[in-house]
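Much of our argument rests on the idea that a fold can be written as discrete symbols. Part of our work consisted of pairing the sequence of a single chain with a tokenised description of its backbone. No coordinates are needed to read the tokens, only the vocabulary itself. The record that follows shows the chain in one-letter code together with its fold in token form.
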Amino acid sequence: MESGCILKAETIGLDVEADIISTVEFNHTGELLATGDKGGRVVIFQREPESKNAPHSQGEYDVYSTFQSHEPEFDYLKSLEIEEKINKIKWLPQQNAAHSLLSTNDKTIKLWKITERDKRPEGYNLKDEEGKLKDLSTVTSLQFTQASRTL
């Protein structure tokens, strides 16, 4: 039955194998969880704050940031295709407000800096689904999480 599902997914053009998680790593505090997949994508999850109703709950994680870390490459000297699959993720000790992590495939190690910054309400941020401007008194805060490659 499962093979039929995979075949069906392939016939409609989905790359199912790229979404298979290949590595998982918590940061030092356990607040952030990074996953890497066979498609070269890194997804970072952030733990939800504990609620007063359930102070000792296991905690749930929400998507914090996602980015494409590695792309498929070809080594012409060795006539070898290099997969984009993330082999390992390693969080670095936090030195400031930004978080840093390393991601690696079979060829390259990349250093990433994950920062959070406030965003001013302007342009599309002020429009509702119908394109009408929102009331500014209803906008409390906007934040944008950004991952940038440092090397």
Observations:
- The longest strand covers residues 109-118.
- The chain has one domain: 19-149.
- The chain has one helix and ten strands.
